[in-house]
Design goal:
Blueprint lengths: L4 E6 L7 H11 L6 E7 L1 H11 L7 E2 L11 E5 L14 H18 L6 E4 L4 H6 L7 H8 L6 E6 L2 E5 L6 H7 L2 H17 L7 E5 L14 H15 L3 E6 L1 H13 L8 E4 L2 H12 L4 E5 L4 E5 L16 H17 L1
Parallel strand pairs: 1-2, 1-5, 2-4, 3-4, 5-12, 7-10, 8-9, 8-10
Antiparallel strand pairs: 6-7, 6-11, 11-12
Helix pairs in contact: 3-5, 7-8
């Protein structure tokens, strides 16, 4: 069967556990015959981590994807030369530059459709900023580079999918950032993504409130009545099966109960108002197995659900489970397109 799909994996922060979980994942997981993998990052950094962790990976170095040596399933695209040694466990300008350049390489390959999926190893937002890449996170970095105006961060653990209205934002700024237009836009993105890439004919999306007890009829806040409920009504009038606003604690508690009782969840996705509201229950449910998916992009983009873990970097302790899940999901979605 001819190779038709290519997954690019970025190196992430070279001083954290990103390279380790990638190398371990590629030892434990093999791409199917219709998929090939290109590693993006400095050859010297990949070599450093292979030697440090004694994780051998055969990946010929290529200067462009047109020179891919057959039948190699994995190659390495050297994105930059680094003169400074890897500084394990530190956020540095160099590590931010390496991470940013790998993301740029990935999006440059995605724009002409030379790759069909991007799996990003974790980065340090501080290091990226120090290197001059001023984005709230990789989600926004990739989305802007690919020209996506409407996109949504959606973390997943199996069929538990949680998308966010606001992402990497100070809690004190969340309320003012939530608007009817923003909620409707996120519902459109999630609904369309579930229909097209995930093959769900008529997705059901639960929407949380912002305030405790979904505002308690206005007693604990009015955003549910003035912003969120009208947004849900507008989305529903467009054919999007959105329901709510629900009290977040009760909503996610019911999901946990349905899973414990092994009964099917009634919703295909959940839309939370802010980062921790949605991601705390998601990570409790699927910690180590969850992945971060970006809806609304022209290319599949997935990452593990964890960070750089500087505290254990270089010790061989990092678990590749989430990275493996990210690769498996990329393949599953590519299979639908194959």
């Amino acid at each position: 069967m001819p190779i038709q799909k290519t997954i690019a994996i970025t190196i992430g922060d070279v001083n954290g556990i990103g390279p380790e979980v990638v190398l371990k994942a590629l030892q434990a997981w093999q791409p199917p015959s219709f998929v090939r993998v290109v590693l993006l990052g400095p050859q010297a950094a990949w070599q450093f981590w292979q030697e440090r962790l004694q994780l051998e990976l055969h990946a010929p170095v290529v200067s462009d994807l047109a020179s891919w040596p057959s039948p190699a399933p994995i190659v390495l695209f050297d994105t930059m030369r680094i003169s400074q040694a890897v500084e394990i466990g530190k956020a540095t300008i160099t590590s931010g530059k390496v991470a940013g350049d790998a993301l740029i390489a990935a999006t440059d390959l995605a724009s002409p459709k030379l790759i069909q999926a991007i799996v990003t190893a974790p980065v340090s937002k501080f290091a990226l900023a120090q290197a001059g890449y001023h984005y709230p996170g990789q989600t926004e970095f990739v989305a802007q580079r690919l020209g996506a105006k409407n996109f949504a961060m959606m973390l997943m653990a199996g069929s538990f999918r949680v998308a966010l209205v606001t992402t990497h934002l100070s809690l004190r700024k969340v309320a003012e950032a939530i608007s009817r237009a923003k909620i409707v836009a996120q519902l459109r993105v999630v609904d369309q993504e579930l229909k097209t890439r995930f093959g769900i004919a008529q997705p059901r999306i639960a929407v949380t409130g912002l305030n405790p007890h979904a505002g308690e009829g206005g007693l604990l806040g009015e955003e549910e009545q003035t912003i969120i409920a009208p947004a849900i009504a507008q989305a529903f009038s467009e054919g999007i099966v959105a329901e709510g606003p629900f009290s977040a604690d009760a909503l996610f508690g019911k999901f946990a109960q349905s899973h414990h009782e092994k009964s099917a969840s009634s919703f295909d996705a959940y839309l939370a108002m802010y980062h921790d509201q949605g991601l705390i229950p998601l990570k409790i449910f699927g910690f180590g197995h969850a992945v971060n998916y970006t809806a609304g992009l022209p290319v599949i983009r997935i990452s593990p659900d964890h960070g750089t873990a500087y505290d254990i970097a270089g010790q061989g302790l990092a678990q590749p489970t989430s990275m493996i899940e990210a690769l498996k999901l990329a393949v599953a979605l590519l299979t639908k397109e194959h």
